[in-house]
From TrEMBL:
GO terms for molecular function: ATP binding; ATP hydrolysis activity; branched-chain amino acid transmembrane transporter activity. It comes from the Bacteria. It comes from Mesobacillus campisalis. PANTHER family: HIGH-AFFINITY BRANCHED-CHAIN AMINO ACID TRANSPORT ATP-BINDING PROTEIN LIVF (PTHR43820:SF4). GO terms for biological process: L-amino acid transport. InterPro entries: AAA+_ATPase, ABC_branched_ATPase_LivF/BraG, ABC_transporter-like_ATP-bd, ABC_transporter-like_CS, BCAA_Transport_ATP-bd_LivF, P-loop_NTPase. This is Amino acid ABC transporter ATPase. The keyword Iron does not apply. Residues 2-233 form the ABC transporter domain.
């Protein structure tokens, strides 16, 4: 479904991504692991159109989409939940959710809103509350729910568990698995390596801008070198 090859991305003169390649099969969950500063967020920004690579190709459903803007990619079915969530603090939960569907012209938005509010009962309870007054976990759920309302084929999640309490983290991973089971392909960036791999089919390991390992999620979980380097934290 997604094929990234030979990607080189720079911030000014500083090269951050060096010859990145990865693939995401339709229906799967794929995780990118890596330490702080390895280039995980830069990879997500390059795939979602927030950054343009100097070299390389991003293909989505067989089409070359390299260099397209985020709104163009959203229309093609790629939605990003960015690091730090970036929900609209001064708008209500409902208004935030409606923003997720702003580009849609079909008549199933109401139906999808109902579906999302059923999946995230906490958002239903807080429909009229301002986004900025939600807790961290609730904001993450809102950001994911808003992305789902764009009806993505591929959902990109950048560190969805960041800064959340362990119980909430478990909830978030459960929700990601459910979203995948209902037909959405997921590419995930995580520092919470063990939990991310447990729900994933495949994983990549990024180190200072280069992919240094990849494999089936189960194999990475069982690989002592990977365990030591990236899976130390529970
Ligand atoms: P983290 O888990 O800390 O978010 P990451 O793996 O997502 O890390 P990136 O945010 O992609 O890492 O950053 C990769 C490298 O690029 C880092 O060395 C970072 O300092 C650098 N970098 C990120 N954003 C910029 C920027 N706007 N300008 C210059 N350098 C940047």
């Amino acid at each position: 479904m997604l094929k990234v090859s030979g990607i080189h991305t720079y911030y000014g003169k500083i090269q951050v991504l060096k010859n990145i390649a990865l693939e995401v099969e339709e229906g799967s969950i794929v995780t990118i692991l890596g330490a702080n500063g390895a280039g995980k967020t830069t990879t997500m920004k390059t795939i979602s159109g927030l950054l343009k690579p100097q070299q390389g190709k991003v293909e989505f459903l067989g089409e070359n989409v390299t260099g397209l803007r985020p709104d163009q990619l959203l229309r093609k079915g790629i939605a990003l939940v960015p690091e730090g969530r970036q929900i609209l603090a001064g708008m209500t939960v409902m208004e935030n959710l409606e923003m997720g569907a702003y580009h849609r012209k079909d008549n199933e938005i109401e139906k999808d809103l109902d579906m999302v509010l059923k999946r995230f009962p906490i958002l239903k309870e807080r429909e009229k509350q301002l986004g900025g007054t939600l807790s961290g976990g609730q904001q993450q759920m809102l950001a994911i729910a808003r992305a789902i309302l764009s009806r993505p084929k591929l959902l990109l999640l950048d560190e969805p568990s960041m800064g959340l309490a362990p119980l909430i983290v478990a909830d978030i991973f459960k929700i990601i698995k459910e979203i995948n089971q209902s037909g959405t392909t997921v590419l995930l960036v995580e520092q919470n390596a063990r939990q991310a791999l447990k729900i994933s089919d495949y994983g990549y390991v990024l180190e200072t801008g280069k992919m240094v390992a990849d494999g089936k999620a189960q194999d990475l979980l069982n690989d002592p070198r990977i365990m030591e380097a990236y899976l130390g934290r529970k």
